Amino acid sequence: MSSLIRLNKFLARAGVCSRRKADELIARGQVQINGQVTTELGQKIDPARDKVIVAGKIISPDQVLNKKFTYVLMNKPIQVVTTLKDPQGRKTIVSLLPRSLQKQRLFPVGRLDYYSQGLIILTDDGELTLRMTHPRWEHPKTYEVLVRGKITAHKLDTMSKGMVLREGEKLAPVKVKIIWQKPELALLRMTLIQGVNRQIRRMCRDLDLTVLKLERTHQGPVSLGSLKPGQWRYLHPKEIKALRKSVGLLS
User: Fold this and answer.
1) What are phi and psi of 89, to 5 degrees?
2) What is the pLDDT of residues 30-87, one digit of tens each?
3) Residue 176, domain CATH
4) Measuring CA to CA, which residue among 190, 17, 232, 196 is closest to residue 113?
5) Domain of 146, in residue numbers
6) 35 contacts: CB under 8 Å, gap ≥ 6
7) What is the pLDDT of residue 64?
8) Sheet containing 57-59: which strands, arranged edge to edge?
9) Is 83 exposed, middle or buried (0-12, 13-18, 19+ CB in 10 A)?
């Protein structure tokens, strides 16, 4: 790697943190280039020549040149938070991994709220993480949602056309399909392309539906499959290739 690269991208590829977190570190003056503190967002460096230090630690170009990323798929159980640490002392998704993986500083790609379960990917591939979570790429996520309440054509139409939440947030259209339906009970399959906080629960709230269970089953081309809550596995090479292709990292 001899060409110039954005500093935040370099740090993400080195597995230090995500691009967004890298920008925060830079803005706080915690990054040095060739002995000088930089706070310039968007700055470019030459990894083969420039010496980068983050919080006193030298980031070797080899961490980028020879980096082999790790990709883990987990079925997140309910009452587990998708953060690396929790100030309230709740169980984190990283704590469910073996110690060898905990030491690799894997980051969850996006989030599932405390009472939701299902597919979540953890990786040290910062570029992939950014693209899977950035609104520009509209990366689809599919959920199965068990709801209590009356399902009407009007409610389905409201979701599919893009509704406005009570708080004023405008939502993109959501694909909704009824898997099965009983009086006052239904299982829905919903596909979203946004990352609005607690979007499904808030949509259902505004349509007088109560969420009883929420499970993410797909993220892009990757499927949860038969993994039980709390179980994890490495992504297969074909899954990694398909995932990277889905966000434009492979042609």
Assistant:
1) 80, 15
2) 999 999 999 998 889 888 788 899 988 888 776 665 568 899 999 999 999 998 888 9
3) 3.30.70.1560
4) 196
5) 140-219
6) 51
7) 61
8) 36-37, 31-33, 52-54, 57-59
9) middle
The answer to whether 178 touches 188, Cβ cutoff 8 Å, is yes
- Shared domain for 58 and 177, answered yes or no, is no
**What SS3 state is found at 106?**
coil
Which residues lie closer than 8 Å to 21 by C-beta, 6 or more apart? Answer: none
Strand pairing partners for 214? Answer: 145
For residue 2, pLDDT over 50 is answered with no
Radius of gyration for the chain, computed over Cα atoms and rounded to the nearest angstrom = 20
pLDDT of residue 56: 85
- Do residues 103 and 172 share a domain? no
Lowest-confidence range among 81-85, 160-164, 188-192, 235-239? 81-85
pLDDT at 73: 97
* pLDDT for the residue 42: 86
Do 207 and 227 lie in one domain? The reply is no
Out of 123-127, 136-140, 232-236, 247-251, least confident range: 247-251
Please indicate, yes or no, if residue 251 is contained in any of the structural domains: no
120 with 181, same domain: the answer is no
pLDDT of 206: 97
- CATH number assigned to the domain comprising residue 37: 3.10.290.10
According to DSSP, residue 168 is labeled S
**Do 42 and 151 reside in the same domain of the chain?**
no
| Shared domain check, 214 and 177 | yes
Residues in contact with 155: Cβ distance below 8 Å, sequence separation at least 6, in sequence order: 207, 209
- Does residue 125 have an active-site annotation? no
Catalytic entry in 86, 113, 125, 157: 113
